[in-house]
Every structure is written in C-alpha cells, then in structure tokens.
Amino acid sequence: MHALLEVKDVTKSYFENGKEFKVLDLVRFDLAERDFVCVVGPSGCGKSTLLRIIVGLDKPTSGAVLFEGEPIRADNPQVAMVFQSFALFPWLTVQQNVEIGLEAKGTPPEERHRIARKFIDAVGLTGFEDAFPRELSGGMKQRVGIARALAIEPLLLCMDEPFSSLDPLTAQNLRDEILQLWANPDLPPKAVLMVTHAIEEAVYLADRVIVLSSRPGRMIAELQIDLPRPRNRKEPEFYGWVDEIYSLIV
Amino acid sequence: MRGLRRWLRYVAGVLILAGLVVAIAFPQAALNAIQLPLFAVFSTTRMVVAYLLSLVFAIAYGHTAATNKRAAVVLLPVLDVLQSIPILGFFPAALVFFVATFHGHPIGIELAVVFLIFTSMSWNMAFGVYESLTTIPQDLEAAAASFGLRGWLRFRHLAFPAAIPKLVYNSILSWTNGWFFLVASEIFTAGGTEFKRPGLGAFIAVAGRNGDAASIAIGIGVLAAVVLTLDIFLWRPLSAYSERFRMETVTGREIPRVPSPYERFRWLPRLPRLRQWTLARLQPVAARSHRMSLQFERAYSGHPKVIKEVRRIDLALFLIVFVLVVSTGLIGLAQMFLRPLPLSAALLPTAAFLSFSRLLLAYGIALAWTIPVAAFIGESERASRYLTPAFELFGSLPATALLPVIVGFALLVTASFGDAAQLAAVLIALFSMQWYLLFNLIAGVRSIPDDLKEAARSFGLRGRAYWRRLLLPAIAPSLLTGSITAWGAGWNALIVSEYTQYANRPFEVPGLGSLLNHAVFDPVPDSEMLLLTILTMIVVVLAMNKLLWRPLFRRASQRFRLEV
Question: Which of B142, B147, B164 lies nearest to residue A101, judging by beta carbons?
Fold first, then answer.
C-alpha cells in the first residue's frame, strides 16, 4: 500500500554560466489520506519550486515524486492547484473558470454545469456565476480559485501561498472557510498540501508542518501539531508551536 | 459623449452638403462618381481578403514562434527583417510574377494587390501574437497546465484570448497601413504596361493624373467615409471589447491605464434589441462550435503522440520552404554579383543619401509639431476631447490618397516645377510619418501617472524644468516607438513620394524611390537595378534599425520606464 504522495529525495538545481545553484536539497516526506500538511520556510527557500515539482509542472534535478505509486504528471486530474495570484482566466466568467478543469476532462456540459454550481455554492459565491474575475474582490477571486480546484474532485489539493495577496481580515475568513470545507468528509480532497511563509498560518491550519531552511531548502524539522480544533491563536500552546518553528528557521 | 455624437452629426451634415455642392458645381465629376460606391466595395473586399489572410498567418506564425523553441530560432530573425524592409519596393517584382503566372488575366493583378496588402499587414500582427503568448503570467500557464488544458483547448481558452488585445491593436494599425498600400497598388505601370483594377485608389490616382480637382475631392471624401465607417462600426467596438481580455495585475497598486480613444465609443454597439436578436441567432451556432471544438479536442489533443507528430510535420514543412526560399535567393544574388555591376549602380550612394536627408527633414518637422501638440492634448481633457477625433480623421487617410492634393498644394506654393517636386516629396514623407509620432506621443503623455505629475507640481517644477525633468524623459520610450514606426513608413513612402504624376506631368526628385520607379516604369525595365536599389534600401534600413533605434530603444526603456 502506497502513501497518497511520496516525495523522494527531491533536489533541484539551476545552472547559470556553468555554476550550480542549488534550490532544494534532498527533500523527503509522505502524505497520507486526511493529512493537512504545511510547508513553511523563509522567502526564497524554494518552497514554491517544491510545490511546482510536486504537481509535476517542474522536473527535479534528482529524486522523484510519486502519486499513488506512479510518477506525477502535470495534468493529473487527481491533483488540483490554488495559486497566490489566483491565476483566473480574465476572459472567462466565474462559472466558466470553475468548469475549466472539468471541460479538459471531457465531462458533459450539463454535468459540468451542475458540479460547478455545487462548488460555487460551497465557497459562498452564489449569484456571481456570470461575473468576470475583474469585477470581484481579491477574497472572492481566491474563492473562485478554490472552487475551481475542488470542482475536479481531486484527491490532493495543493495551495501556493493562497492567502498572501489578501488583506488580513479576508485571509482569516478564508482560512476558516477552508477548515470548514476540510471538516466535511463528503467534499474533496483527501489531503491538502500548502506552502506558506506565515508560521502562524501554518500552525493554525495544519496537522503537520514541514520546516525548510533558507537556500538551499533542506528539511529542518517535521512537526506534528496536536492542538485540538478549532484552534485559538491566543492560547499559550499555540504560541509555543509558533515560537518553536520560528526559532528553527532563524 | 453627447458632444461627440453631435460632432459626428455635424461632420455628416457637412459632408452631405459638400457632396451636393460638388454635384451641382461639377456635374461631369459627379457623373464619374456614380461608380464610386461600387469601387469602394471592390477596394474594401481586397482589404478584407488580405486582412483575413494576415490574421491566419499572424496566429500561425506567432503561435509557432512562441511555442516551438527550435522554430523560433529561425522565425524571429526572419520576422524582424521582413518587418523592417520597405515592402512597396517588392511590389513590382510581385506584380510581374503574378501577372506572368496568370498570363495577364486580371485575377493575377488582383492577387498581386492582395499580396501586397497582406505583406503590409501581417508582420506586426504576428509579432503581437508572439509577444502576447510569451508574456502570459506564469501562474496562468501553470493553472492551464495543471487543469489539463492541452492542444486545442489550451489554444481556445488560453493562447487565443491572451493574444486578443495586442491582435486587435495591431489589426487597427495594419488596417491603416493596408489602405496606404491599397491606394498605391490599384494602379501601376511596369515595363511600359499599365495595370489597373477598378477601385478607390485607382480612381483618385487617375483623377490626380488628369489634374481633375473635383474628382480628387470626391474620391478622397468617399475614401474618408469608408475608412471612418469601418473604424466606427468595426474597429472601435472591437477595441472596446478586447479590453475584456487584458491581463490584470495582482499587485495592490493598479498601473494607470492609458484611456484609449476607443473607449469613448462604447455607446456604439449599445443597441439592446439588435444585440438580443443577434445573440439569439448566434446561440445555436455558438453551442455547435463548442461541441465541435470538444470533439476536435478529443480527436486531436487526446493523444500526445498526435500532437508531437503534428508539430514535427509543421516544423519540417516550414524548414523545407525556408531552405528553398533562402537558397534560391542566395543563388540569385550570387549570380547577380558575379556579373559586372551596371553603370547606373554608381548613382546608388548619392540617391540613398538624398532620400535619407529628405526623410530626416520630414522627421524633424514632424517632431517639431507633434511633441508640443501631444503634450497639450495629453494634459488637457478638453483638448483631447475635441482634437483627438480630428487628428484621427486626418491620420486615418492614407498619404497615398492625399498625393494629388499635396502635389497640387506644392505647385501652388512654389509656382515652379523643380521646387514643387522637392516640396511634395518632403510633404508626402511628412504625411506618412507624422501620425505615428503623434499618436504614440499622446499615449506616452497620458501614461504618466497622476501622482508623478502632482509631485512635480508640488515641488514647483514648471516650464522648462517640468519638460526636462518629467515630460521628456517620461515620453522617451513612446517617442522611440513612434520614431521607429514613422521611419518605417517613411521608407515605404519613398517610392510614391519621389516620382508622381500630376496633371499629366511627372514630378521627380533624385533618390532611391525614383531609381526604383525608373527600373520598373521605363519601357525597358532594368531588373538588375531594381534588385540593387531594393538591396541598398534594405541595407540602409536594417543598419539604422540595428545601430541606431534598437540600442536607443533598449536604453530608453531601461532608464525611463515608468514602473509602479
């Protein structure tokens, strides 16, 4: 029995004028079903590169990423991605944006429509189906991004700094909504992998936090956050975790 | 908005009145003009055919260059050269080729005309597509890839929509360019034979040759009406629509958007009933195209192998054609230079210098008036509202159509034939060049962020200091873009500006353009001189682009870019 996702000794280097710049060094971890994992690290530690490699958009210099025991492919419909910059198609409506992955899968139009509606409702955007992204606020755009990812009913949801371009209040609301969606076992995904530089955010959301060092990104620690949910940012235990991770990075 | 509509109504009224007056005062000319609507249809049809060809070409070429790295190595330099060489110089050669192929049948001339317009339209559109595709935000590319958009679906949902803003913008430029060449090409003499196809351009040219002022006026009026109608009912709505496909910036601060003149025309397609009716009619078609595109996707992109094969065949075909064309060209060149050069080749350096000086003079005049006017229009909302439409009206008239008017004017001013020819040559160059400068400069002035202007004012920058410290540096990039395009147009105008006929008299000044004309028009055409002159022109133009404009542009866009 394989884990859902296996990241096996992933190393990534860029070469410039014959010189090697190592970005990631022997990163190794597994993801099982019902895992919510956050990767944290200082800016420029290669965490976004790691995520791109994990979803198959980039190739590792050495090492491998296995999804359900098979090498990962970028267009794997079992893996969906949420982007920091939202990456919505500006010329498609909310409905069309959410349907895009289903269309690529070849889902018939009526079913596509139904599924998209369901997830637009789930992220609270009912009534905005025909709006264009530019007419939405940042928080609403990221909701579309999340609905689009969930709509293909992925096993694994990958998020690349999904809340960093939002204002703090919107970001906190969206975090709580993600947790609500996650708490509903009827909804996809089976596991979440999120990359962030905000330590508090990682402790607030994740079951497990993977800490990367600054460049080249090496795994410093893998911590099991055993705080009960809902978590309270004001509790000393919460702060204990945040401080511990902070001291690991600095 | 209301003011504009009223303005348009006035223009229409004046035009109708002018038409009536002309019809009463010059019955003979009015009789000639009865055919004009038909001529207008002919000319527009040629433009549309050439445009559709250019569109297909631009998308295929730009898309291949942007997605196929190996092909791009060849495609980009080729495009770069083709874009900067004066096309009109090739027209006689193309004409001879097409006419010979179709044994003098009119279809050959039609094809030559369409081919010429095509070559004037397609390069910048292809570059637009290439630029748009290479500047798609990385995250959007990643999203498309991770949600499984490949092949046809990727093109339909990502590549094509992303290219629309630049494609529409360049289409408008190309369309204006197209008129210039259409007018120049509908009537042509090569090797002592006159080739003529019925159309607006031929009508104006014939009127000019006969010195028939009334017919000239009517012809230009009808041309202006056609150009404006298409502009208002096709290009402006399209341009407003293309705004929807613009990429957004995610960073908190919005980059100040240049309000395009086209936005003011947003009211035009607002005819609710007509829109509903068309939408209802189009719905089944759209649905069917959607289904077909899905079927196509399944048949084509479902298999990565098919994509790979298609790519390979695509590249192979391209390379075969490319090698064939280049090698025949090289062999021809080698053959020509192996023989001794004709005596008249000694004229080439002087001719090149004279042509260049004339263009430089025209460029200087254009700079002298466009910079202050652009600063005025760009800074004042009122001036912009009233002056921009007027300039757009003049700017959309191809200089080739104004030819008879310009020569007539030069005659009137100088009252002597020799000077009139010189003046006319400079004026025609000026009319071909100035609008590119003006419109680019206006856009440049408008793109200065209000914050920066206010900061300048609050620190007391006024008068010369304001120009030196803010305005001139800020418009430097658009000044260079405008200059490059203007010079391109100027070189193209040489062949019409240095040799014209007016009132049955030839107007000629020495230069590359007139050498080109002689090589083609003379009863015994001199194909060797034709080739040598074109080569000289290409060498001069490419040298200027590589040694002057490119380095300047690179420096300007680094130093004077308005980053937010």
Answer: B147
* Domain at A229, CATH number: 3.40.50.300
Could you tell me the two tokens for B261? 């003149």
Share of chain A above pLDDT 90, in %: 19
Cβ(B545)–Cβ(B530) below 8 Å: no
Contact assignment for A77 to B148 by CB distance below 8 Å: yes
**Concatenated DSSP letters for B509-529?**
-SSHHHHHHHHHHSSS--HHH
| Set of chain B residues whose Cβ sits within 8 Å of the Cβ of A151 | none
Smallest Cα distance from A228 to chain B, Å: 34
Chain B residues lying within 8 Å of A57, measured CB to CB: 142, 145-146
The arrangement of strands across the sheet holding A5-16 comes to A19-31, A5-16, A62-67, A70-71
Query: Of the candidates B139, B161, B297, which has its C-beta nearest A91's C-beta?
Result: B161
Rounded-to-integer distance, Cα B525 and Cα B527, Å: 6
Residue A123, domain member (yes or no): no
pLDDT tens digit sequence for A194-203? 999 888 898 8
Chain A positions in Cβ-Cβ contact with residue B250 (cut-off 8 Å): 84-86, 165
pLDDT on residue B248: 62
Cβ-defined contact of B139 to A79 (cutoff 8 Å): no
Structural domain count, chain A: 1
Kindly determine whether residue A92 and residue B248, on different chains, have CB atoms separated by under 8 Å.
no
Nearest chain B CA: its distance from A44 CA (Å): 17
Residue in B139, B146, B157 closest to A74 by CB? B146
**Token pair listed for A49:** 């590169």
B469 min Cα distance to partner chain A (Å): 35
Q: Say which of A57, A79, A103 has its CB closest to residue B153.
A: A103
Q: Is B237 exposed, middle or buried (0-12, 13-18, 19+ CB in 10 A)?
A: middle
Look at A104 and B149 and tell me if their CB atoms are within 8 Å.
yes
* Amino acid identity for residue A222 in this structure: E
**Residue A131, domain member (yes or no):** no
Q: How confident is the model at residue A45 (pLDDT cuts 50, 70, 90)?
A: confident
Looking at chain A, which residue has its C-alpha nearest residue B295? Answer: A106
Closest CA to B61 of B407, B418, B318, B400: B318
CB atoms within 10 A of CB B330: 10
Residue A124 is encoded by which pair of tokens? 């609270």
Task: Write out the DSSP string of A188-217.
Answer: S-SEEEEEES-HHHHHHH-SEEEEEPSSSB
Sign of CA dihedral A188, A190, A194, A200: positive
Q: According to the model, what pLDDT value does residue B252 have?
A: 36
Examine the pLDDT at A16 and tell me if it is beyond 70.
yes
- Band of the pLDDT at A146, cuts 50, 70, 90? very high
> Which chain B residues have a beta carbon less than 8 Å from that of A93?
none
What is the domain range of residue A13? 5-78+190-249
Within a domain: A27: yes
Interface contact flag, A89 B148, Cβ < 8 Å? no
Residue B290 confidence (pLDDT): 66
DSSP letters spanning A35-95:
-EEEEE--TTSSHHHHHHHHTTSS--SEEEEEETTEE--TT-TTEEEE-TT----TTS-HH
Whether A92 sits inside 8 A of B157 (CB atoms) is yes
The predicted pLDDT at position B411 comes to: 83
Asked whether this complex has an ipTM greater than 0.85, the answer is no
pLDDT less than 50: residues of chain B: 1-2, 250-269, 564
In a domain, A235, yes or no: yes
- In three-state secondary structure terms, A33 is coil
